[in-house]
Amino acid sequence: MTSYLLKRLGGAVLVLLVLSVVIYALFYIAPGDAARLACGDRCNPQQIAQVREQLSLGDPVYVQYAHFLQGIFAGSDYSTGTAVLHCDAPCLGFSYQTDQQVTQLILQRLPATLSLGLGAMVVWLVIGVGTGLVSALRRGGITERALTLLTLAGTATPVFTLGLLLLMLVCAYLRWLPFPTYVPLTENPEQWAWNMLLPWFTLGLFESAKYARLTRSSTLETLAEDHIRTFRAYGVRERSVVGRHALRGAVPPVIALNALDLGTVLGSAVLTESLFGIPGIGKTLIDAVRTIDLPVVVGVVLVTGAAVVLANVVADLLYAMADRRVVLQ
Prior knowledge:
Elements: H1 2-29, H2 34-39, H3 45-54, H4 61-74, E1 76-79, E2 84-87, E3 94-95, E4 100-101, H5 102-137, H6 142-156, H7 159-173, H8 189-223, H9 226-233, H10 238-268, H11 270-276, H12 281-291, H13 294-322
Antiparallel strand pairs: 1-2, 3-4
Helix pairs in contact: 1-4, 1-13, 5-6, 5-8, 5-10, 5-13, 6-8, 7-8, 7-11, 8-10, 10-13, 11-12, 12-13
């Protein structure tokens, strides 16, 4: 187990290094005048030259990339024009448009994205796994066909369309909830939960369709195995067969997919955060793209990529722990 974990972590570090090279090449080398993009339209030629010197953009490419990595692992100093600020490691850059460290900006927005992702995870697991299990046990019946139709509709409906429909139905027509306005958990937990209900269900319903399909196919595959038929032949109750044996065999792929989705929610919740005005990482990325704030865009893309890579490692470990047939090598 330890050797397997070390190998996976070593592979993850290698992938992260390759990812950093690709991101740096795309955002700092390919655009041309990256200093102007990083500084923004408000900067004069002297400020742009200062930013170019701080980012080492006049040096050879390998020196520029080494300076970029040095900032991540050892920190870096940035001049705001009136003072020099030290950015502690891990330093993802400095936003010259907002005069704020990118790392601090992401950490400020991370709780909102995590609250959205964790709440939506509960929704997509409960609805997706429950729907898939019922579809597998009622195979060929009207219930299974209706649930399959609903899951297909959920897959085909864009998340922003689903969110608008929920807003019109729940808030405007039925008036069960007021239009959501994000409130931090630390300020008012009750109001935070009420305002997050629609975002949770919007993202959770959209993601639950693939969990329903995965649970249904995994459960049907498990129910067709020889040991399940043996249990039934010995007269084991159907509830025990399904709950203790069939469901256990169908859970590992769901666990692996859930770990991966929770990692990708940092970047995939852009539409949901923008629709409901949640000040999370996704909305931060949209705002940075709109204002061409290059350091913030690079920082968010790096964090999102790192989350996906680490989520893959966690998914592999959880799959191996849930399914004893997997040999860790």
